[in-house]
């Protein structure tokens, strides 16, 4: 060791749990592809069910993890002051320690780590919600049955809860304290260091005492198992093994070298992305609400093609409804005017404009305004929903890309196994869809008997329900009489 230099130096570091292999780049991109395939094949029946089912189960796993992350945050240790040897700005150590702490004799140590799974979970659940909700709004093929509608409602509630939890967890990253690594000045650290598991003997008292005792005794330093002393390896996370925790440092030009600079840029862009998401969700939820409310709108369909073909008829209906309401209000006002004239009263200015403020005209006006807002929401939602999904996916993937390199490469089994699973599922579903073409005569006879039995049960259930509805209607009529 060079006795003329400082005993040890401190360098800013980034402690993190890398993205789990299940949420790495290949599974995420496969998830996006499944969502797109679900939208493009929603008329095919079994094929869309395979794509949508695989995407939904993957997103459901991410949503459950978001609940766990928010419900069990990592416990923060109390901050502790650590004195360090003074290093001037003109030191020659910059080449070996690009994030060297200089011009100070103390820093604050508070072990913590970033959980990068939170970024991947945010990407998955929000993207899933942005796709599942419009599918429930626009797709009559996927929601023509009540059971499917219930399933979509439950799934959208799960995705909404997961989105809220992951957004809350993402906001907690801003509170992660700066981390440091402590190293001998003549032994440059590794760019990436993985934890071997924290040993209680590496902290003998306060952080200040532990760090100084480690570097004052070479045998103590040799026991820590790493070139540098990383207090952040003393932290933990509920869903992770301690050995998966990593400590990074990079060159001064990298985003990882100055995480605060990167987070500031992300936070600045948050307002635009989140505003777009809120607008998209509001429009789709409003449309979903009007879809099930007992309100008869004059908009003929939720399909943009039908709306465009019927645009003149829609506008004519709006004008005619207002015209009829105003005409009837004027007739009532004329009758009232004759009564006032015959009685010798002078017509006031209020009497001339009163037809516009009658209850009949106001109801018609509110109906036209409501239908106008529904029409505006439909058209705007059709435009903004796809743009929001694309913008969010591009933004969040840029965010994740700046988190650091993936744990695994695409050629490793942990990445391509998901694609193989979907391919095998598609093959199985395709074969099962051909079961009647491949079936023998005896199998067809058995299926016919099962279908007849099932048809009889359905008929009995339908008759019982019809009788129940008829009884309820009769009782209601008798009660009114």
From TrEMBL:
<keyword id="KW-0472">Membrane</keyword>
<keyword id="KW-1133">Transmembrane helix</keyword>
<keyword id="KW-0812">Transmembrane</keyword>
<feature type="transmembrane region" description="Helical">
    <location>
        <begin position="120"/>
        <end position="138"/>
    </location>
</feature>
<feature type="transmembrane region" description="Helical">
    <location>
        <begin position="373"/>
        <end position="396"/>
    </location>
</feature>
<protein>
    <submittedName>
        <fullName>Uncharacterized protein</fullName>
    </submittedName>
</protein>
<feature type="transmembrane region" description="Helical">
    <location>
        <begin position="416"/>
        <end position="434"/>
    </location>
</feature>
<feature type="region of interest" description="Disordered">
    <location>
        <begin position="459"/>
        <end position="481"/>
    </location>
</feature>
<feature type="transmembrane region" description="Helical">
    <location>
        <begin position="272"/>
        <end position="293"/>
    </location>
</feature>
<feature type="transmembrane region" description="Helical">
    <location>
        <begin position="150"/>
        <end position="171"/>
    </location>
</feature>
